[in-house]
Amino acid sequence: MLSLPRRPRYAVSSASDRGEGPISYIAVALLVSLLVGALVVTNVPVTVASAIKTAVCKVAAGSWCDTPEKAAEGRGTSGGGRPVTVAAPQNGGQKKDDGNCWSWADWACGAVDGLRLGSWDVIKDTWDGITFTGCLVHICSHDGFTSNWSSIGALFTTDPRETGKAILDEATKPIRDDWNNGHKVRAVFRAIPTTLGVVFGGKGLTKLKNLKGKNRSRGKDKEPDPPARLDAPEVIERRAEEAGRRGDVEGAEEALEDAEQHRRELLEAAEKDQSKVSMGERAKAQATVRAAKRAVADAKVRKVLMRTPTGRWANDILNRYNVEVRYESDGGSYYIPTVNQIHVSTSKGGSKPKGERSPEDVRSPESLAVILVHEANHVEYEHTGRVPPRTVPRDKYLKSRVREEAEGTAREVEQVYELRPLGVKVGAGIAEDIYDRGYHRARRQAIERGEKLTEAELHEIGRKGAVDALEEAFHAGRFRTSNTGETYPDYYGKYWDQANGWSKPPVD
Length: 508
Fold this sequence. Notes:
mainly alpha; globular; 3 domains; disordered N terminus; 59% helix
């Protein structure tokens, strides 16, 4: 990690010079604590809470704040031994466009949009609070009157901790949705008025409806809670896929439970009356369960990706280009551009019948994450126009495709090196030794030339040397494809030959 120069400290007037006393600091501190606490309780990403705290602290300029400048102090350099990724790999990690206006003003537009939506949420909830109160005195339908009083009654039969969590969870759902869908700036600024509405306004009143029927009393004489109404299969499947893509294993497993429950209910209904459940409904329920199971597997791998800089780059690429990832027991690992789909082999090697497979034959989520990093590199090449057409000369085409493979393999090795300090035991085979030799050789040669280079520049030189060494190994046939077992020059050469109507003469 590079050590950044400390920012100079500037003299500022004291609180008393500005007409502020300790009470103002306490008030702001309480506001920050309430905001951050409410967001953390409801599982809003920690980054959102941190961003809100930093924004309020910058305005208040309070000495009690932990600013980014303070956090950076005391950081030193790290290195030695294995090569270290100084920064996230190139061409990755670009911020997802919030889609509100011109790209150069996207940050400001996201902030304004977040404040606007958050304020509108508060206004709507205020109106809902008025109508909720009106129904309590029967200024609405009889069903509304009964429902609202039932919600009030739930306050006295529900665990207070569950009450607070249910209210806050419902109130901050739009913030979490924005964050998970990539609108991060909007999520941060939307959280400010929304959370203020929870803490100081009447938002909680309208969320009491979610408590109805959630009697948490453990008394034996109490009736069990009625089962919650399940989402439609399409919604369950979408929930599962979204959870999988952000590495939310718990969310994907909950969607799977709902999918299996929905299938059971359909089968039970069919046993009572076949005419009430169509074959199409059964097939859809089965397909939803299968999709949810794939999402759970995907979430476990994506969760590993989210632990490292290289992994986060790969996950961003997969989500940005909406790539479908399928985990198969056989067939190797590869990317199919025509359908924008990645196939990842979960088997360590060879093809065994299902009955003969053991847990040792199945790759761990950590190993699958390393493979997925390699395939994400192919996705980026394809979607950024870096894959050459097969109309270019054969040698130029082969050189470009083999370089692409070498770059993807370098990213695999870097993912391995980033996982090991986290206690993960995973390897990248002979690619590690080739990467290391190329990396250190290039660095040493640069130092011997007497050039004055920073550590970051030496790292980039070393990394290029590593990719060059891997490229040479690919051309020499030291790596073979996982799906066909061919060398990569033969594999890509075959596709060029087919596209250009050329074939090798027969061997006598």
